[in-house]
Automatic annotation (TrEMBL), chain A:
Entry GO terms, CC: cytosol; nucleus
Source species: Maudiozyma saulgeensis
PANTHER family: BOLA-LIKE PROTEIN 2, BOLA-LIKE PROTEIN-RELATED
Family label: Belongs to the BolA/IbaG family.
GO terms (BP aspect): intracellular iron ion homeostasis; protein maturation
InterPro entries: BOL2, BolA, BolA-like_sf
Protein name: Similar to Saccharomyces cerevisiae YGL220W FRA2 Protein involved in negative regulation of transcription of iron regulon
Example GO molecular function: 2 iron, 2 sulfur cluster binding
Domain of life (superkingdom): Eukaryota
Classification of source organism: Eukaryota, Fungi, Dikarya, Ascomycota, Saccharomycotina
Automatic annotation (TrEMBL), chain B:
SUPFAM superfamilies, sorted: Thioredoxin-like
Family assignment from sequence similarity: Belongs to the glutaredoxin family. Monothiol subfamily.
Name of the protein in its database record: Similar to Saccharomyces cerevisiae YER174C GRX4 Hydroperoxide and superoxide-radical responsive glutathione-dependent oxidoreductase
UniProt entry tagged with the keyword Transmembrane: no
Amino acid sequence: MLTEEDLRNKISTTIPDIYNVIVTDLSYGCGQSFDVVVVSNIFQGKNKLQRSRLVNGALKEEIQTIHAFSCKCYTEDEWAKIVI
Amino acid sequence: MAVHQITNQDEFTRLTTTDAGDKLIVLYFHTIWAEPCKQMGEVYSAISDEPSNKDVSFLSIDADSNSEIAELFEISAVPYFVLIQKGTILKELSGADPKEFINLLDECKKFIENKGANAPKPEEDTEEAEGESEEEVFARLTKLVNAAPVMLFMKGTPSEPKCGFSRQLVGILREHQVRFGFFDILRDDAIRQSLKKFSDWPTFPQLYINGEFQGGLDIIKESLEDDTEFFQHTIQQ
């Protein structure tokens, strides 16, 4: 069964230039439904589809085993606008 | 049963988009109270039974109980016939003249033949499925994603979604009054798996506009945040 840490590790080691990764298990520990936020400048210049595909590629095996997966990808600038 | 009675919009969408293939489809709008419809209904049924029309799909729609479908075609009088193929209206006919209808039907059949539509009939497709190469599957998928300008691949149907994300995306499309065709990927595991490769996307729902993959629920939501007319702008391209 997957945990938030599993996904966090996989993303941090596969996607370059990580600024922040936030993984939330929406299924309260059942490892079935994850909400993921990835902040990295690698997303600069990429449209939403390309960004998501990057994350999908990194989590290819994991996604196959879980039921629901939702992901938001931001560059550092975009993230700064949201968080401040 | 040569004439298929439509009883709900999902069925209608499915028969005219995803299950349609290259077939000529005739829509017959009628009401129970209009006199000419009584006789025309019998004629319609007889025509649908003719062997020469075996490749044509004959649908029958009560305009009163399916008013949303009737509105889609702006039906103002019955009996009314609409002949469509590959999501395009070929001809329309108002009135109860059997001869006129038969002529129109023949005209459309000839038109389709001449276009050289050589796609295999749906029954043949399933027989060949096991021996299909990836190219053949992808060719089929290409047709499927183009079945309608906006195609939603979802779990369940719009009236009975089997997953929260699919339900949300249907809600969004309806909220923005977008007409869309759908395919229930729970009904066909082969399409479900091959579409993941085809779209290079691991999950459902998946939205296609004009044959191009747009994304899943998240991306569509974000796209709408950036542009409230996202659907209109993308469909127009």
